[in-house]
Write a structure and sequence with these properties.
The protein is of the alpha/beta class and about 550 residues long. Among the domains are: about 1-80, Roll (Urease, subunit C, domain 1); about 95-220, Roll (Diaminopimelate Epimerase, Chain A, domain 1). The protein is about 35% helix and about 20% strand. The chain contains 20 helices and 25 strands. Strands 8-15-16-18-19-20-21-22 form an eight-stranded parallel beta sheet. α4 links the parallel β9 and β10. Mean pLDDT is about 95; it is low at about 1-25.
Length: about 550
């Protein structure tokens, strides 16, 4: 027995030393060295060097060993002790909306309705009369008067341009009188199913349209040209690369926009990996189901194998569907945006075709309904590795938290929503129900993973905002002391996984991205601070110095 063990030990030792020599026989294209590299690879979680060849990681480890792979044409990137993490993944974005918001009136951070009106009026001065003016980002919860605004002040300041201003969450719009006239919206206009017009005492529309009611005006906004779409998409991708994003999950995209993505990707002008969720439209859903699941198209740029449905509205505009009425609006329980059975119906189709179904659910009633219909679909078509997701999973009844793990459902959550909403969430939900809101630790303890994101452009593009929120549950100013319901915090390791390997897993992309392990695509980010070790209050001061996609820089911070 002793001789057999000795022989086996010699064989294993020979193999372990032979592997580096074999790897060194072919030189690397790029060696990243003198760095603190968080690989999110459990075999080698922190290393100081990494070798890349043909756009993929071929080895990670100590500098001495990796430098043996240096050849005459190898480029060496000496980072002088900087931090490297895998390319960050935002598991819930609206890519085109980000692109269009970059050219529209930016209303994020406005502290009063007067400021909104001033910004729009300034744009109107340089815009031909009759041209539609679009903007996004207002949030009445940030104003002194937190009631919904009315169109009167906006209509007086901008009488000759139809104006459509989307709320920060994308679930309500404020329009002026010119836009209401263009859409023939009057006191006689009925609330559409899944939508609500805010109304004055005489029943006339005040200018705020919630959820499905937004379409009453939005359908009259002139459609963008194909070239405008392409320009907006490329602007959004460049902005995301600037903040260290290499992959995104793109929620609710129509066929015409997916066609634009494919055209740009074929041209080599799509510098992001996009896991596209097909919008809830029967024609589009049937088209892509017949085409079949698509993974890593165009050199790993597009995945088209999931569908997105919105089950309810948002908490900020009181459209999230709640089991009990809103604490600050006792006659309102929110809005259901799809008929009963729709999630089950699409879920069955998705399971049969090998597709994933991802459903927006914010309120506790919406989350319960979606879990119920997921269960019905899975009972009809049992699939072990379906990875169905609930997007946002923002307010969950305690009885429903264990059901995520029981059904194999992934909560796709946006940590930055917690730090945006915490100032007023208790007013909406009350002190008891709020305990099930943004409940990351409760979900993690139940046995699920969390895919993190931003819902951009609802939140800022910077993914470190969600990282900071995940580990501190505090805003950029450190409020509140100790964190908002701090028992729900993630560890830093969990937060990093939630925006790398867990997010990759949530999109069936984990074999290609999400960690810097040998064989995977070399997507990585260089940071000027170590986000895993600096005090929490310094995390948001971290700068992205460079973003690499397949070992090629797609963003480099200019040197002062």
């Amino acid at each position: 027995m002793t001789n057999r063990r000795l022989t086996l030990g010699i064989i294993l030792a020979s193999f372990s030393f032979a592997a580096p020599r074999l790897a060194a026989a072919q030189s690397a294209d790029l060696i990243v060295t003198n760095a603190r590299i968080y690989t999110v690879d459990e075999n080698r979680p922190v290393v100081e060097a990494m070798a890349i060849r043909d756009g993929r990681v071929v080895a990670t480890g100590p500098q001495r060993g990796i430098m043996t792979m240096r050849g005459p044409n190898t480029r060496v990137l000496d980072l002088n002790g900087r931090t490297v993490i895998p390319g960050m993944i935002d598991a819930h974005v609206h890519l085109l909306n980000l692109g269009t918001s970059l050219r529209n009136v930016d209303l994020v951070g406005t502290t009063s309705y007067d400021e909104v009106v001033t910004r729009v009026a300034a744009r109107a001065k340089d815009t031909p009369a009759g041209t539609w003016i679009l903007g996004r980002g207002w949030d009445q919860n940030d104003w002194g008067d937190t009631r919904f605004p009315t169109h009167d002040a906006l209509s007086r300041a901008v009488p000759n341009h139809p104006v459509v201003l989307t709320r920060i969450d994308g679930h309500a719009t404020l329009v002026n009188a010119a836009a209401l006239r263009a859409a023939s919206v009057t006191a006689q206009t009925q609330d559409p199913s899944g939508g609500r017009l805010e109304r004055a005492a005489d029943n006339s529309p005040t200018g705020v349209l919630v959820d499905a009611a937004m379409g009453l005006v939005n359908r009259h906004v002139p459609a963008a040209t194909k070239e405008q779409l392409k320009t907006a998409v490329q602007a959004a991708i460049a902005e995301m690369n600037r903040w260290g994003l290499t992959s995104v999950h793109d929620a609710g995209v129509g066929r015409a926009v997916i066609d634009v993505y494919e055209e740009l990707a074929r041209e080599g002008s799509f510098n992001i990996r996009d896991n596209v969720m097909v919008a809830n439209n029967d024609e589009a859903i049937n088209h892509y189901l017949q085409r079949g699941p698509q993974s890593g198209l165009y050199n790993g740029r597009l995945w088209i194998k999931s569908i997105k449905i919105s089950a309810d509205g948002a908490l900020g505009s009181r459209g999230a569907a709640l089991i009990e009425p809103y604490t600050d609006d006792p006659k309102n329980t929110g809005l259901a945006l799809v008929p009963a059975g729709r999630v089950r119906e699409v879920g069955v189709k998705a399971l049969r075709a090998g597709f994933q179904l991802n459903v927006h659910a914010i309120g506790d009633r919406a989350n319960r309904t979606v879990l119920d219909e997921f269960q019905q679909a899975l009972d009809s078509v049992p699939v072990a590795d379906h990875r169905f997701r609930i997007e946002h999973a923002q307010i969950i009844h305690p009885d429903d938290i264990p059901r995520f793990a029981q059904l194999g459902v992934i909560p796709s959550m946006q940590a930055s929503h917690q730090t945006s909403d915490m100032y007023w969430a208790v007013n909406r939900l009350g002190p008891t129900r709020v305990l099930g809101a943004y409940a990351w630790r409760s979900l993690l303890n139940s046995g699920v993973i969390i895919a993190n994101g931003s819902d951009l452009p609802v939140e800022r593009t910077n993914p470190l905002i969600s990282f900071m929120a995940s580990v501190s549950r505090q805003d950029a100013k450190g409020w509140p002391a100790g964190g908002w319901y701090p028992e729900q915090r993630m560890t830093r390791e969990e937060a990093l996984k939630s925006m790398t390997i867990w997010a990759a897993y949530a999109g069936f992309m984990e074999k290609e991205v999400g960690s810097l392990a040998p064989g995977k695509l070399a997507d990585f980010v260089v940071l000027d601070q170590d986000i895993m070790r600096v005090p929490p209050e310094l995390i948001l001061g971290t700068n992205v110095l460079a973003t690499y996609l397949s070992g090629r820089a797609v963003f480099q911070k200019p040197v002062p």
